[in-house]
Amino acid sequence: MNAPKIAEDAGRARESLRTMWRIRRFEEAVEELYGRGLMHGTMHLSIGQEAVPTAVCQTLRRDDYITSTHRGHGHCIAKGADPESMMAELLAKETGYCRGRGGSMHIADTATGNLGANGIVAGGVPIAAGAALSASMRGTDQVAVCFHGDGALGEGAWHEAVVLAAMWRLPVVFLCEDNHYGMSMSSRRAFGLADLSDRARGYGIPGVSVDGNDLQAVHDAAAEAVGRARAGEGPSLVVATTYRWRGHSKSDKNLYRTREEIEEWRAQDPIVRFERAVLEAGTLTATDLEQIGQEVRSELRTAVQRAHAAPDARPDDLLESVYAEVDA
Amino acid sequence: MNAPKIAEDAGRARESLRTMWRIRRFEEAVEELYGRGLMHGTMHLSIGQEAVPTAVCQTLRRDDYITSTHRGHGHCIAKGADPESMMAELLAKETGYCRGRGGSMHIADTATGNLGANGIVAGGVPIAAGAALSASMRGTDQVAVCFHGDGALGEGAWHEAVVLAAMWRLPVVFLCEDNHYGMSMSSRRAFGLADLSDRARGYGIPGVSVDGNDLQAVHDAAAEAVGRARAGEGPSLVVATTYRWRGHSKSDKNLYRTREEIEEWRAQDPIVRFERAVLEAGTLTATDLEQIGQEVRSELRTAVQRAHAAPDARPDDLLESVYAEVDA
Amino acid sequence: MSEMTYAEAVRSALAIAMEQDERVFLMGEDVGTYGGAFGVTGDLIHRMGAQRIRDTTISELGIVGMGVGAAMTGMRPVVEIQFSDFSAQAMDQIANQAAKIHFMLGGAVSVPLVIRAPGGSGTGAAAQHSQSLEAWFTHVPGLKVVMPATADDAKGLLLAAIDDPNPVVVLEHKLLYRTSGPVREGAERTPLGVAAVPRRGTDLTIVATGVQVSRSLEAAEQLAQEGIEATVVDPRTLKPLDEETIAAEAIATGRVLLVQEAVRTLGFMSEVAALLSEGEAFVHLKAPIRRLTGLDVPIPYAPQLERAVVPQVEDIVAAAQTLVREW
Amino acid sequence: MSEMTYAEAVRSALAIAMEQDERVFLMGEDVGTYGGAFGVTGDLIHRMGAQRIRDTTISELGIVGMGVGAAMTGMRPVVEIQFSDFSAQAMDQIANQAAKIHFMLGGAVSVPLVIRAPGGSGTGAAAQHSQSLEAWFTHVPGLKVVMPATADDAKGLLLAAIDDPNPVVVLEHKLLYRTSGPVREGAERTPLGVAAVPRRGTDLTIVATGVQVSRSLEAAEQLAQEGIEATVVDPRTLKPLDEETIAAEAIATGRVLLVQEAVRTLGFMSEVAALLSEGEAFVHLKAPIRRLTGLDVPIPYAPQLERAVVPQVEDIVAAAQTLVREW
Ligand SMILES: Cc1ncc(C[n+]2csc(CCOP(=O)(O)OP(=O)(O)O)c2C)c(N)n1
Ligand SMILES: Cc1ncc(C[n+]2csc(CCOP(=O)(O)OP(=O)(O)O)c2C)c(N)n1
Ligand SMILES: [Mg+2]
Ligand SMILES: [Mg+2]
């Protein structure tokens, strides 16, 4: 690639950092609220994986689609959602993206093309392929990116959607965030492949693996796959190898991995790595970085406060919320 | 392979021919009975594909398992079932393998290890993997062969079973009979692969394609895969390329293929090809072949007659047939 | 009105919907070149093109899921599940996705998806190709469910289903495909949620669905000859259900016979019985509610067995006679 | 008797079954090292080994299907579906294979498979992780279905399910896992098909399943304080159903309140209502049958909404009061 690196472009570097920090701070806030008993349900945090959604969504237009997962805060933020409305949703507020009906596992922001997180592993995969079919039938050049975990590779839904997308050469990118585990199942053990992107070979589509903690590498691989999709050349599989720092959810006692392994990966913090690249390139100064961090921190603080102050979701019209109204 | 060829061994050649003819004559009889309105339901004929089950089952022991498909008469016969009890089943008789409850799509003969045809495309794939799991947990060296069509490659069930079988290195062989179509969908068009056995690469298991109308070639590929399974070396995919002469079922108007294509493949008749090899090798004479044909013909005639004469399936104990009885 | 088969009526509805709305398309196994496993789509691929009549691989979950994604993004997909039994493969996308997305997303999006699937027994296709699974769908909030019993409703209900902004499961019946009847011209809709009352009598009310509607009408003819006059109610839409009509017609005669092909336990008529037993009808009924249903067994292959497990005309007649004579 | 949690009772049953019968094993997602998403299996992998407590990939259809194949060939598999909602993924193997194989094959083979799956709401896990889907399974001939409501039944019913030569779906309830109660020592079975009557009264009969059993008992305590005495019936096995006990207890008080967490339409209690309304009870009941059920909506995320869609103790009390006072 001869295009200028993101770390060398002040504007893009700033934007990248802002997004990654926004994801991290959002999830830290969630973690805290949850810990203090102010948030209920289950939460799946993507801390440590921020480079993936950030880089991928940089290659997308606002009118492109994504489908997301149970671990979807990052995808949602990176595609352009408003953290305050997200936080309101998680706090079960009427002003949340789903009016408190969906929560973390169903958060969506259709205005920015996010068709929704999904509580079902691989549930979004056929949906993304369907959005891509729709785009191509409507004659737009929109692209759909299907974020999914390594665990999703075990599901029949993943397989069927890839088969159909490949046959019809649909503009969809299957973006596998291989964070090493599907809950407690190691992706190395599960799939018998040294390189998970070899999975693509069984479908006659391109597959590539990249270092998911390297913003630039993810960006380049995604850009290529998205470009191919937009040009009508069909789907691809991109595997971004990364790591989840936190447990799968709150019930996780981390019995399936070692403390050392977690520590090793914390040392690969994608935000720190990108900050280092930016400093090395001399694009931004340490003070700039400090300032970006502060801005995001205060932005998130405000978001949490305002979300807290919003009215609670109301149970009064539940029965009327099940079906979309038929036009008269 | 340095082992003696089947066509060069009089006993094995005779047995192979008997099995292939038995399948063909059985299905011709079914076709005729159906045409004369003496048989009801739907029938899926495998005429033209006889070499595959014949060769594969030669590599199996009686206590090995198979799972079969809607197009399963050949698998059933090749594994050792009695054509009379099969015919009785298709004629809805009390003496049929399933007491008239299953019919062609659910025919099974557990005594010879056939766990059943299946009306669901890919329905038998996880079942075969489960039988292989069972064999390995019980510490036997039994193997399971999962017969399935090319169309089954589109199903999530196929995928999930292969993923699990690969992870656990189960003694199972996925035996894909690629007869070029899943109903009307061309397997070339559907799966985007010049060689369907490339599908195996996505699972880290061996895959091989063979000429499915060449008894010897199918035998050798199956023997290798079965041997590997029996030795504890895990599953494989074997794709046997063949062709279905008849329509998918009776409703088929053959709109998706040409008459020429059908004719080309009829010229590849696996039985004729094997007979030729036997004659060329000088193992059996033309008179021998004639005699084998006659024997099978009369065997089948008797089977049909006796099946016809058997008592009809009785509706009186239907409600008691749903659950297995709990031991007192 | 023109006479056509139920299958032709479905095809006609598909063609009209596609002509009226470019967002409408169909996908499913063998719906294109083959013309559909039951000949329903016929030559549609030649009239509408392979873009709009899409042949898929054998991947029910993928097909329905792609329908969901397309419906969420501006299309009006109709997906066909070749036999309704295979909806089992697609149940996650039907029940966990299509049905719930509008609600889960707080109304931000709707899923105008139609799922067509032929159900029912009588063709010798045995246990995995003959089920009547309407109860599964009717149990799921967020789905609408229709079961057309006539050619006219096959067309009218499908057109209404395609219009609807919600996921609608349309359960056609294999045995009905070749039956014919008068069908309204043009693009006339049959509104969802409105029962039909094709016959009115004074002695009992038969509520029947799918293929049992015509069997009930035939039974009613026979009953009339011996002086028993039956009302026949066809709910047509199982969800949302026209409870008012059913209750009113039940009260009008005071005796209720509920007829379905599906197995007895938790079949659709269990809900109708429950509704009647807890409502106003409770005090007006002269007789206990009587269900006449498929036996709680898988559909067997043998024709004589297959017939024995599902209500036939003579069973309806007998059940009606007993109900009227004993109460 | 010893006091243990419902989750411990399930674990105890699994351990006992594995000790008694080497054919028994468990497979499912995260049942091994992780100890189960709800901690049910805990340390079993260390006691039984990774061969018998098998961690799978995320492949529900494959898992259940492998259970079917293993059950047909001499093993006694127990498969866990991590949340019962994901049975939608596995529905083909559950309903089209496991349930029908014994029948379709003319009795030549049986499928002694147990499918365990936690259901129910109350944990803030929203619409795709909170359903009560017992009606789907109960509708399928060939399956048995149990819903243990106490720790003792969680153990006893699971042991009986593992003994049974048929596929049995065991629906545990997430909210019950941490509740405790007295559990019989050893390998005592709770027979399938026998209802429990944990309380007897004279004024009304409450039939309740799953988490609603303890809520009904709590409600009955409150009602007793105002002089209303309720019988509480817990069917425990939904299929085969102990119809006799339910009918007898219904007739004994003349008033019936049916309580389930599942959505109303075609929930399990629709069948109970239908059975009562067509049986002897019809003439003995003093009041219309009353169902108190979950609303016909997906389970929402917000705690106050989630609570509102499912019957709570106070709702049961109120419904019972109305029923007794008005009739
Ligand atoms: C169909 C289905 N099966 C199981 C689950 C339970 N579950 C939720 S997340 C998860 C692990 C998913 O792993 P992966 O796809 O790698 O995503 P990650 O959690 O690592 O982001 C599991 C097993 C589910 N939600 N849906
Ligand atoms: C789950 C499922 N989907 C669809 C069908 C309908 N159907 C029966 S056979 C068949 C084609 C199967 O093709 P293939 O696997 O190649 O086997 P072949 O018929 O060629 O032997 C189809 C679509 C089915 N029985 N089950
Ligand atoms: Mg993962
Ligand atoms: Mg084929």
UniProtKB/TrEMBL annotation, chains A, B:
One of its GO terms (molecular function) is magnesium ion binding. Its cofactor is thiamine diphosphate. The keyword Oxidoreductase applies. Pfam families: E1_dh. Residues 19-315 form the Dehydrogenase E1 component domain. Keywords: Oxidoreductase, Thiamine pyrophosphate. CDD domains: TPP_E1_PDC_ADC_BCADC (cd02000). GO terms for biological process: pyruvate decarboxylation to acetyl-CoA. It comes from the Bacteria. This is Acetoin:2,6-dichlorophenolindophenol oxidoreductase subunit alpha. It comes from Sediminivirga luteola.
From TrEMBL, chains C, D:
Residues 4-179 form the Transketolase-like pyrimidine-binding domain. CDD domains: TPP_PYR_E1-PDHc-beta_like (cd07036). SMART domains: Transket_pyr. GO terms for molecular function: magnesium ion binding; oxidoreductase activity. InterPro entries: THDP-binding, Transketo_C/PFOR_II, Transketolase-like_Pyr-bd, Transketolase_C. SUPFAM superfamilies: Thiamin diphosphate-binding fold (THDP-binding), TK C-terminal domain-like. Pfam families: Transket_pyr, Transketolase_C. Keywords: Oxidoreductase, Thiamine pyrophosphate. Its cofactor is thiamine diphosphate. This is Transketolase. It comes from Sediminivirga luteola.
